[in-house]
Amino acid sequence: MMSGIKRDHQRFKQIVKGKIKQNLKKYISHGELIGRQGKDYVSIPIPQIDLPRFKFGKRQSGGVGQGDGAPGTPLGPGEPDEGSQQAGNAGGEHPLEVDVTLAELAQMLGEELELPHIQPKGSGSVQSHRNKYSGIHTVGPNSLRHIKRTFKEALKRQIVTGQYNPEDPVIIPIKKDHRYRSWKSITKPENNALIIYMMDVSGSMGDEQKEIVRTESFWIDTWIRSQYNEIDIRYIIHDATAREVDQQTFYHTRESGGTLISSAYRLANEIVDKEYPVSEWNIYAFHFSDGDNWSGEDTKLCVDLLRHDFLPKLNAFCYGQVESRYGSGQFIKDLLENFKEEEKLITSKIESKEAIYRSLKEFLGKGK
Fold first, then answer.
1. Cα dihedral 169, 174, 179, 180 sign
2. Residue 160 C-alpha from the chain's centroid
3. Cβ atoms 359, 218 nearer than 8 A
4. Strands (E) located in 102-170
């Protein structure tokens, strides 16, 4: 049976999770969780929950039942220590930081946004190998000796040969009694995923727009990782030209200049062709821009690249248009006009951080 302490601890964890889910929309809209991300967990500040604890007073400080007293002495709180109070008319807030695994966070995200589980395409062509202990052998290393089976064999042998004495049940295994664990290698097909992030870093994309991209990408990562065994992530930035970069550069690059969106699509398509066979990988592309392209001719090139080369290889292509005072916002209109019936292409307008919540639902809500 579960002990009272464990039961109370589980109940407290459920309360904490309830608080996180209650404020999840706020966490999604703001990037405060990203800086608290570890390898497998996120530290989340939860206000208005305080862990129960003992509070000890100062020694020799007096109080109820302590020190000298006289009839008529009031039993009440003592005077506060000098200098211990600050100006103000409200109680302080004591936030509690709790560690939540990324898997738990993904589950909360799925429940809050009512996201369907992703249906991977293909039959899982990527093979993983692992060893499974599935049998017993008469030979093997001492590190794999099966103690119970060894003594069982020794007991059987002593009973058969008449050496076993119930009054003095001493069992001494000999070499031929020894039994060892054995294993076999199991090959298991797995569905793996590639995520390609593309971002416009031209002069019209400011720090606010990049922060929106950074926050939304964190939640996209969290959800897709919960749906697949392995994830590869590639980052592409572009202005008039495109180049592949690492995650740090992707989120913190400051560049200026014009915009040729086709350069990013061409590079992403080349990466897929060279390194990720379509039959073995579930591929997702996310492009974030303010919708400003250099020319109508380049927009036509983008449409051709998507229709004939890139889109057929993808599970989903998601275009997020981040509102900017300097961007024209035309590109999303061009995509919607040219891909009216294309289910793989999903667009979303992200006017502000508060719109990230809705945008995630639009990108991930179809279970692609």
1. positive
2. 59
3. no
4. 126-137
- Please, what's the b/e burial string for 270-306 (b: 16 or more CB within 10 A of its CB; e: otherwise)? ebbeeebeeebbbbbbbbbbbbbbbeeebbebbbebb
CA distances from 337 to 257, 340, 341 (A): 27, 6, 10
Amino acid, res. 42: V
Q: The whole model's pTM is what?
A: 0.63
Distance of alpha carbon 196 from the chain centroid: 16
- Domain residues for 134? 126-187
Tens-binned pLDDT, residue by residue, of the chain (368 aa) = 456 666 665 666 666 566 666 667 777 776 555 545 555 556 655 554 445 566 666 655 555 555 566 666 665 555 555 555 554 444 444 455 666 777 777 777 777 777 767 766 654 444 444 566 678 888 888 888 888 889 899 989 988 888 888 888 888 898 889 999 887 665 444 568 899 999 998 877 878 888 888 888 888 888 888 888 778 899 999 998 999 999 888 877 766 677 899 999 999 999 999 999 988 888 999 999 999 888 889 999 999 999 999 999 999 999 999 988 776 789 999 999 999 889 999 999 999 889 998 999 898 887 66
Structural domain count, the chain: 3
Q: Same domain for 278 and 355? A: yes
Residue 223 within a domain: yes
